[in-house]
Amino acid sequence: MPPFRRTRLAPERSGERLIDPPVHASAAAPADSIETLVDNNRLLRTAFDTRIGDLKLWELVAATRREVLTVAAEYTLSYRDAERPSDMADWIARPIIMGGHQPEFFHPGVWLKNSALDAYARAVSGTAINLVVDTDRCVRASCSVPVGTPHAAHLEEVPFDAPAPEMAWEERAIEDRDVFAAFGQRASDLLAPLEPNPILRRWWPLAIERAAECHRLGLGLAQARHALEARFGWETLEVPVSELMRLPTVMVFMGWLLAHARQFHEAYNAALVAYRRLHKVRGRGRPMPELAVRTDSAGDGPWYEVPWWIWSRDDRRRRRVFASMSPGGTLTLSDLETVRVELPISPDTSPSKWVDALSRMEEHALRLRPRAIVTTMLSRLLIADVFVHGTGGAAYDELTDSIVRQLTGCDPPRHAVVSGTLRLPVGNMFPELAVTDPAAELADVHRMLRDLEFHPERHLAPLEGQSADIVELVRRKRHWIDTHPTATLARRRCQEIRAVNELLQPRMESLRHAALDRVGPLAAQMHARSVLESRAHPWCFFAEKTLRSFLLLETD
Fold first, then answer.
1. Measured between alpha carbons, how far is residue 79 from residues 171, 172, 244 in Å?
2. pLDDT tens digits, 407-442
3. What is the reported pTM?
4. Measured between alpha carbons, how far is residue 73 from residues 79, 86, 112, 220 in Å?
């Protein structure tokens, strides 16, 4: 089967949604639905006869699904109501629809994935699970709030916690509870001229409550959002990726990948090369850098970089992971700086030893966490019947598809793509936005400035009122324009036309200054419009009614 490709762009207009496949089949495309995708993916999975230790991959799937469903239900029930069927065998057999995102202030188009998870799961009588990717890093503890008018606007940074060194969300505690508590009111007040009643006012007290309970910044935000989703009627489960990594079946899969570290390294880089060739990408760092090969300070090596992160309790900076396999079958993982750990992980050791070794790392406060590609590979191969991506993740997961084919020889299950665009209702406050186009006006100004430079005669008053010198210059230019540019005359023709243009420039000064005076205000308006109408504003900046209409997939 040829490689599967699904390239999609996020919708441009506010309120538009991309849901592929649709929740329900249409008369025009009866086979294009989530039910069909689930059925096709289950057929693809039956072809996976790759052995992982003493199990075949499809045998590991059932055990992993049992653990994930159990842990996701327990985690969700710790802070909100959730359904937990009593018949575990039936629950495992039902379709699982899965997606995931970092626990941050994402825009409504990302939140639409969670709504689609719920709708997809209902359509196939399955279970929806959202992964809280708390293994990603928390870069900043502030949120950008749009402030201003169509003539001048900017983003005001409002902190929701005190600054702290960069670390994974799973490690990030709240540094200043007063700053955290004040964020909702401060951000809402700044936002009031554009959106007087954002859902942030109602949601933030819930975030304060959940953060106080779980003692983690990211999980507090995620649990508060998930609790709000319960009020919307969404019946999804959630589980942090950090919890997923502690499950024995997941450790078996991680151990299998690490036991084949060099093959994984080579498959990863080969997939990147193929992706760049296919999409004509020139940059070596796009969409991500290739995995490196290193030697350490003692000259030992080679060390093959693998797509995980590692950090310790004493140093919580996420660092790259390098693997080296000894002839005796011991896998050594290191950041080539301070962390070095030897593990009895090899293709010849039993999966129980892989689990014991990775469990001991956790017990000794060493965190080994997968990068995005490994997380989605795990989700798509072992857990989900359908994984739901946004447009960005869907594009990058072409790499995952290629890696899976190289490691297993089989086609991976295919994913769904969901995205959308919702912009703040600034048109209600500023009706002039609908009738003005500063970008088009600025383009006209630049064309005018170019025309003044190269065609100044077009902007002179009628020649009858001009001096004899000006009339002669215009006549001279027309003469050279009408002259055929032969090899002998081409250079002189260009020089003569340019000379006339330069002699006419003093007559263009007032027009040029008038045009230049418009550049600054128009550029400011363009910037203001990009700030006010950005699709990247967090979901909590919108009114609840607007969000419900957008997120609940309501259609005529």
1. 20, 20, 18
2. 988 889 999 999 999 999 998 889 988 889 999 999
3. 0.90
4. 11, 12, 22, 17
Going along 371-523, which residue ranges are E strands? 386-389, 416-420
Q: Phi and psi of 233, rounded to 5°?
A: 95, 10
DSSP character string of 38-52: HHHHHHHHHT---EE
- Pairing type for strands 331-334 and 236-240 reads unpaired
Would the CA dihedral through 113, 114, 115, 121 be positive or negative? positive
Domain-by-domain residue ranges, the chain? 17-137+241-248+372-426, 252-369, 432-532
φ/ψ (deg, to 5) at 419? -160, 170
End-to-end CA distance of the chain: 38
pLDDT tens digit string along 362-408?
999 999 999 999 999 999 999 999 999 999 888 788 899 999 999 98
Residue with tokens 């032969």: 486
Residue 380 is which amino acid? Answer: R
Whether residue 515 has pLDDT greater than 50: yes
Amino acid in position 212: A
Burial 343-357 (b: 16+ CB within 10 A, else e): bbbbeebebeebbbb
Q: What is the DSSP letter of 246?
A: T
**CA 25 to CA 31: how far, in whole Å?**
7
**Relative orientation angle of helices 248-259 and 351-363, to the nearest 10 degrees:** 110
Residue 254's region, left for phi above 0, alpha for psi from -120 to 50, else beta, is alpha
